[in-house]
Amino acid sequence: MPKRKEDLRTMSDTNQKLAALRGAMSAVNADACLIPSSDPHLSEYLPAHWRARSHFSGFTGSAGTLVVGREKSALWTDGRYFIQAERQLRGSEIELMRMAQKGVPTVSAWLADLLQDGQTLALDGMVTAESTVRELRRAFGGKQVKILDADLAGPCWEGRPAVPATQCYVHEVCYAGLSAAEKLAAVRGELKKQNATALLVTRLDSAAWLTNLRAADIDYNPFALCFVFVTQSAAWLFIDASRLPGEALAMLRENGIEVRGYGEIRSWLAGYTGSETVLADAGSISHALWSELEKNPAFTIREGAEPIQALKGVKNPTEIENLKNSHRKDGVAMVRFQMQLEARMAAGERVTECDIAAMLRNVRFVQPACVGESFDTIAAYGPNAAMMHYSAQPATCAVLAPRGFLLVDSGAQYLDGTTDITRTYALGELTEEEKRWYTLVLKSHIDIARAVFMEGCTGGNLDILARSAVWQHGIDYRCGTGHGVGFLGGVHEGPQSLRTTNNVVFKPGMTVTDEPGIYEEGKVGIRIENELLCVKKMETEYGVFLGFEPFTYCPIDTTPVLVEMLTADELEWLNSYHALVLETLKPLLKPDEVEWLAAKCAPLG
Q1: Which of 27, 247, 260, 472 keeps 20 to 30 A from 140, CA to CA?
Q2: What is the pLDDT of residues 406-424, one digit of tens each?
Q3: How confident is the model at residue 8 (pLDDT cuts 50, 70, 90)?
Q4: CATH number of the domain at 329-600, out of 3.40.640.10, 3.20.20.140, 3.40.190.10, 3.90.230.10?
């Protein structure tokens, strides 16, 4: 099949950018260049200024690593993006490496095979994790491969976006539940437990939680670019002071936090003259900042997990009540969205995937305390939904038809919480196979939602519960089952998750998404997602047993369900959940909306 003009143009642009990058490599005698999807805070979602991997490869997914050698290049990404990456890399010289698939080498193994004694690998130490550099050195083994800390992407990136610097605001204690001083005290207590006296905070979600400051430096993530250094007696926030209004400066002073410039972090660490044992996680600190800690004799590094992730992973009582409130508002918005969608489809209007995101914004942004979306809405019709993180574009988005499935994954940021919800809607006629797949996904979803498990179980232990229903039919999904969600924070936060590799023990107060799916390339994508709160269920002579409570309030489409495939317990859970949705949202809806919702929540069986 002939290549389209836009494919040829993209191929040409990508290869020209790679040629420019190779020119920069030659200037410093580098034989390969590593470009991760990262920024100085090792974030998942990046400001445009640091989307170098996307710029040089043409692949726009949120996760991936590009390696460029003198003669060849390759890009690694995970199962969420295999289909998208194949499309976006088509025609370029870049080889797609499907991570975790049989016969596919890791980044470090590929580089170890490529590079020989005396050769040089260039990478930007400010955006590369210390753990990544260690992995590379292990892979190189006895080879004398030099790792050069150099930002080669920047100088040959024409039109590179500026570093963002949006205005900050205070996240009030009535929402957060704890003051910054109280959070600092909790962190210091954790440091003492680990025989440490100091902590370098580089993660933006951790810094936001600790300081009770928010901004809009990253699309959909209400964070400010900053670092925090905490000792047992002081705390410094590294951020441009011009971004802080008077009330934010006053709050920081009252809570014992001193402000320094964002760009001062490296020189400040290099010049520190105290004596500190710094708790540090090689996976959450950049190679460049880790090197500053290592070089300064004032610091002794004690390796261990950054404690803020665990602290904020367990929501406090105020946060839990606020989360339920924000999800009630989000439920109202979802009801109004679905009613509008059904009305437009019934009237024969032309509705595209791109229209879905606009419709959701219209009903969400009028809700009290809504400050924006929590991620770019995924509205995927038919086979497009097989790409887990599909992004509809105006020039190519699909037009909805009265048949098949529409998958809608969306969420919002509220002052009182962050939401993330997926529903898959039947727009009309379905095949028996599609109904069977949908019912299997629902069974998987219910298996997590109604799980009761002993205290001490991890996300890895629980992940298998969701997969059991689809495994019995020889089906799997190449992603985790669920993730933690922030509180006016990142839509993907930890440390807990439902994933085979996650070893974090679930505790009451943790929240997690429940979102199994089935993705058949060229056919369909189906996902059902709620947010769940981990709660104590009972205590017996055998120990403490935990479980989950849903706090996403939105009907699940029951029209595709093959009721005969559900067990009595699964059917009871579904009907009980819909009774909860109706009871929760009814006081917030208009009479016609209540009537519509009652029909959607009608018991099955």
Answers
A1: 27
A2: 999 999 999 999 999 999 9
A3: very low
A4: 3.90.230.10
d(CA 139, CA 108): 6
- Digit-coded pLDDT (tens) for 55-111: 999 999 989 999 999 999 999 999 889 989 999 999 899 999 999 999 999 999 999
Q: Which residue in 430, 452, 442, 417 sits closest to 548, CA to CA?
A: 452
Was domain 169-312 assigned CATH 1.10.260.40? Answer: no
Average pLDDT, whole number, for the chain? 96
Kindly report, as residue ranges, where domains of CATH 3.90.230.10 are found in the chain. Answer: 329-600
Residue 11, pLDDT score: 56
Dist. CA 571–CA 457, nearest whole Å: 26
CA torsion 315-319-323-329 (nearest 10°) is: -170
Region(s) of the chain under CATH 3.40.350.10: 5-156, 169-312
The count of C-alpha atoms lying within 13 angstroms of the C-alpha of 465, restricted to the half-sphere facing its C-beta, is 20
Given CATH 3.30.365.10, say whether it is the number of domain 5-156. Answer: no
* Dist CA 388 CA 61 (whole Å): 10
Give helix 317-346 / helix 591-600 axis angle, nearest 10°. 90
Q: Which tokens hold the place of 85?
A: 């990456």
Furthest-apart CA pair in the chain: how many Å? 75
Cα distances (Å, whole numbers) of residue 550 to 198, 284, 515: 38, 31, 12
Closest CA to 253 of 272, 238, 264, 237: 237
Q: Rounded to whole angstroms, how far apart are CA atoms 227 and 239?
A: 7
User: CA–CA distance from 531 to each of 421, 445, 505, 514, 550 (Å)?
Assistant: 7, 11, 18, 6, 6
SS3 at position 256: coil
388: pLDDT confidence band, cut at 50, 70 and 90? confident
Strand partners, 403: 429
Q: For residue 10, name the pLDDT band (cuts at 50, 70, 90).
A: low
Entry field: residues in the chain? 605
Using a pLDDT cut of 70, give the percent of the chain over it.
98
3-state DSSP assignment of residue 123: strand
Q: Which two tokens stand for residue 27?
A: 């200037």
Q: Give the global pTM.
A: 0.93
> What one-character-per-residue DSSP string does 154-208 give?
GGG-TTPPPPP-PPPEE--HHHHSS-HHHHHHHHHHHHHHTT--EEEE--HHHHH
How far apart CA 443 and CA 564 sit, in angstroms, is 12
Question: Distance between CA 356 and CA 393 in Å, rounded?
Answer: 12
Ramachandran sector of residue 229 (left: φ over 0; alpha: ψ -120 to 50; beta: rest): beta
Q: What's the confidence (pLDDT) of residue 3?
A: 41
- What totals of helices (H) and strands (E) does the chain contain, helices first? 18, 28
DSSP label of 252: H
pLDDT per residue over 166-189, tens digit each? 999 999 999 999 999 999 999 999
Q: Is the dihedral of CA 99, 100, 105, 109 positive or negative?
A: positive
Cα–Cα distance measured from residue 443 to residue 445, given in angstroms and rounded to the nearest whole number: 5
Residue 15 pairs with which residues in a beta bridge?
none
